[in-house]
Structures
1.
Amino acid sequence: EVHLVESGGGSFQPGGSLRLSCVASGFNFGIYWMHWVRQAPGKGLMWLSRIEGEGPTTAYADSVKGRFTASRDNSKNTLYLQINSLRVEDTAVYYCARHGATIDYWGQGTLVTVSS
Amino acid sequence: QSALTQPRSVSGSPGQSVTISCTGTDSDVGGYDYVSWYRQNPGKAPKLLIYDVYERPSGVPHRFSGSKSGNTASLTISGLQAEDEADYYCHSYAGEYTSVFGTGTTVTVL
């Protein structure tokens, strides 16, 4: 069974940095593209990033390019999202998700709150 | 990468059909047959309902169907049930490995 578990969320101050993690199990993690998606409180889904199975190819939403960095460690079955220069508007639940034929499996999400 | 446009809400009585539209551009919905639909219940992660415009993953009931015409994709729920009350999101590939989601639609069962 596919299982994705995010962690690293919490309360942060504007201008700070954080790294989210997503541990995968139940499938061959290293051959799948993976995504990060976020959802601000009471708002819709926003696609953030996609990273290739072997890691070198990444893509980002224009609005987060330069501040967000996706990476992965296939030896640890773990996906990461580094967020720098945190803004209040980064407050959201952050989901990692697997790309099969499309985004098919999602984690339960981790809440990031940015406030002073 | 502007969000795809969905109606804010749709409603129907049990047993009726409802259709949710998802309008994009030639650069996303209209340019690729990679449209997916998700249902999200409160406090939960989204669940995949439709992929590649009209394909259903195993376990998704046949009363969920997808289609596309030009820059607009649609999700139809036939035989509406109380459990279908949820938020629904479309998603499209947008080129160069990027994606975009729709604005979301709340389905209410009257």
Note: Chain A has no helices and eleven strands.
2.
Amino acid sequence: EPEVTQTPSHQVTQMGQEVILRCVPISNHLYFYWYRQILGQKVEFLVSFYNNEISEKSEIFDDQFSVERPDGSNFTLKIRSTKLEDSAMYFCASTASRYGYTFGSGTRLTVV
Amino acid sequence: AQSVTQPDIHITVSEGASLELRCNYSYGATPYLFWYVQSPGQGLQLLLKYFSGDTLVQGIKGFEAEFKRSQSSFNLRKPSVHWSDAAEYFCAVGNTNAGKSTFGDGTTLTVKP
């Protein structure tokens, strides 16, 4: 069964550093998403991406965040200057039909 | 604005017993509804989805859910729970235009032997 692959599975970074979280969506999917889940809290929408541009973003997705699909297969989330409160599990998802995602296993980001 | 309420934070059932997890949604148009399961340290797996048509939808792992428009509910059911069903369950409502989903707070299911 096709999978969404996320790397790394766990990243520790110092506050103020830039991090890039990587995702390889399912190859024939056209819609891509990033969600995050702070420990013990609900899953929160960050951004959706279609046709090489952001289609929607939440208030969480401020100027510190950016997304890119650099080479037609990878889908990345960059946080420019990490804060302690960015510590969370970040999930990438993709879909072909726009409804009903396939999620990756997540990247646990720890900011120290 | 779309929202989802899962009234039960934690549910414990005995193995072999039936299960119902509640989900209520708020959405201005016809909702797109989903149930996901998350095992500890894992990602989210789609159990089932409702877009239109038959209000009783079947999913993977023996789960089903019933859409009741009059009650704004989309409750998840399973007739006989297995120990491996212990996990966190999330209900979500989808945005019809951009595919954004709003998740509920989740219900933790514990299965007693």
Note: The longest strand of chain A covers residues 43-50.
